[in-house]
Design goal:
The protein is an all-alpha fold and about 130 residues long. It has a domain at about 1-80. The chain is built from five helices and no strands. The chain has helices at about 1-30, 35-55, 65-75, 80-90, 95-125. The longest helix is centred in the C-terminal third of the chain and has 30 residues, at about 95-125. The N and C termini lie far apart (about 45 Å).
């Protein structure tokens, strides 16, 4: 039960943090390029890398707290960090083909899904 509570609270905090940080960076950049989203994704990947290394060296940290930080806060902040750490682990385990496949399929399928969803909504709504 504790892990669910920590994930929920962490997710709420991470989502609000993402909204604030993304907007702040985007306003600073003053550009149409999504610098705010880029900054969120890169900082999330950096933090999950730090946590991954820390947790590997400190296995005594309870799973509930690990999940509260990674799935909760970072998941609410950016799921891109999960994509990053999973791809890193594949490459770190010398599964380079799978790491590349994950990057390629995730990006291609994600963009295709956005396109498909958008086109379906256009037809339903008539936009």
């Amino acid at each position: 039960m504790l892990k669910w509570v920590l994930i929920a609270i962490g997710g709420a905090f991470g989502s609000v943090l993402r909204y604030w940080f993304q907007g702040w960076v985007q306003r600073l950049a003053g550009s149409t390029f999504p610098f705010g989203t880029l900054a969120v994704n890169v900082t999330a990947c950096f933090v999950i890398g730090l946590l991954g290394g820390f947790f590997a060296a400190h296995e005594s940290i309870r799973e509930e707290y690990r999940l509260g930080l990674t799935v909760g806060i970072l998941g609410g902040y950016s799921t891109f960090s999960t994509f990053g750490i999973e791809t890193f682990k594949l490459a770190d385990n010398n599964e380079h083909s799978l790491a590349f496949l994950n990057v390629f399929v995730s990006c291609a399928a994600g963009l295709a899904a956005v396109w498909l969803g958008y086109r379906i909504a256009e037809r339903w709504i008539g936009a």
